[in-house]
Design the sequence.
């Protein structure tokens, strides 16, 4: 199946929100993998798409429609990611995210007993872990010389800032080796995409190319779903209908119309119970207006669901999110 590969040339800087607080109390939520909005936005910039919408959410819908037109796509445009790691000249087997900090080969997932067999996985090199580090940068400012003329950038004295860098370790025979990742997305478009593009924060660069990946055939989306057992590869957005929602009740949440049952994050030991987690994530940065898109609730990557075909049509915003890869699913059985 046609796939687009995003291969970072340097450690990525991805987080769900800026770092806040002093050193000893600072909090940061580094992301295990790029948000679909990051991927779609980077692709849009690569093919020269310009957005006119003033609203950051409507701009997302506009981006999807222009990508469909420019690349001759069907919805969903993107599904994924699958991940591979390299600590040398070759790439590991394909992995999926099983939590916000770990990846595992699908062959390590026991879909009958619903657990991740880490022992056998580590022996065969089918596990990888996120090891984020915090880096420091110097705040720069650009002085305007006169109207319409841009001055040079200078360091703003006394201003430093922190940002996360995503480092990954490949686990084999219980030894961890630093590795670089590449992210593989099923591409439902006729046009090829290739080149180098800014990807994520801090001006990081990634190589992008189109290829064929057999494993991508197992990827699907709520927009093109068949009944079965799936693991989520990307966040599954949830839009509560009740401000006082305390439990995951299907009738009070928009975004679970395709799910018959949410099983949750799989345990690492046989016999333990899967856990359902709901987290808040931001929808990325809207470059047109230089503002952050709103945050939403979501089931994290690695959540296992029993799914069925959509019971009713979804709204334009949810359709746009699904179209660029939110709620991407990998079939377990």
Sequence:
């Amino acid at each position: 199946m046609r796939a687009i590969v995003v291969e970072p040339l340097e450690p990525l800087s991805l987080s769900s929100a800026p770092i806040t607080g002093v050193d000893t109390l600072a909090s940061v939520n580094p992301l295990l993998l790029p948000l679909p909005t990051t991927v779609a936005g980077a692709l849009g910039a690569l093919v020269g798409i310009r957005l006119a919408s003033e609203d950051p959410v409507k701009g997302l819908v506009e981006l999807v429609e222009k990508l469909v037109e420019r690349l001759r796509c069907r919805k969903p445009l993107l599904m994924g990611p699958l991940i591979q790691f390299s600590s040398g000249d070759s790439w590991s087997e394909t992995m999926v995210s099983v939590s916000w900090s770990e990846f595992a080969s699908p062959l390590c997932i026991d879909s009958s007993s619903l657990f991740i067999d880490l022992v056998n996985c580590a022996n065969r090199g089918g596990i990888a872990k996120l090891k984020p580090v915090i880096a420091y940068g110097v705040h720069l400012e650009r002085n305007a010389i006169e109207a319409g003329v841009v001055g040079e950038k200078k360091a703003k004295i006394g201003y430093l800032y922190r940002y996360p860098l995503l480092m990954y370790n490949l686990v084999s025979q219980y030894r961890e080796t630093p590795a670089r990742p590449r992210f593989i997305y099923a591409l439902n478009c006729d046009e090829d995409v290739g080149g180098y593009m800014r990807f994520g924060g801090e001006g990081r660069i990634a190589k992008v190319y189109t290829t064929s990946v057999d494993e991508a055939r197992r990827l699907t989306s709520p927009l093109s779903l068949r009944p079965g057992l799936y693991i989520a590869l990307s966040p599954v957005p949830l839009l509560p209908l009740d401000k006082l929602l305390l439990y995951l009740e299907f009738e009070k949440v928009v975004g679970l119309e395709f799910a018959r049952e949410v099983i949750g994050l799989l345990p690492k030991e046989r016999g333990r119970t899967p856990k359902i987690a709901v987290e808040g994530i931001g929808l990325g940065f809207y470059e047109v207006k230089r503002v952050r898109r709103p945050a939403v609730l979501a089931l994290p990557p690695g959540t296992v669901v029993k799914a069925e075909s959509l019971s009713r049509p979804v709204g334009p915003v949810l359709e746009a999110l699904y179209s660029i890869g939110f709620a991407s699913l990998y079939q377990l059985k």
Notes: The two ends are 19 Å apart (CA to CA). The chain has one domain: 2-331. Residues 56-71 form the longest helix (16 residues).
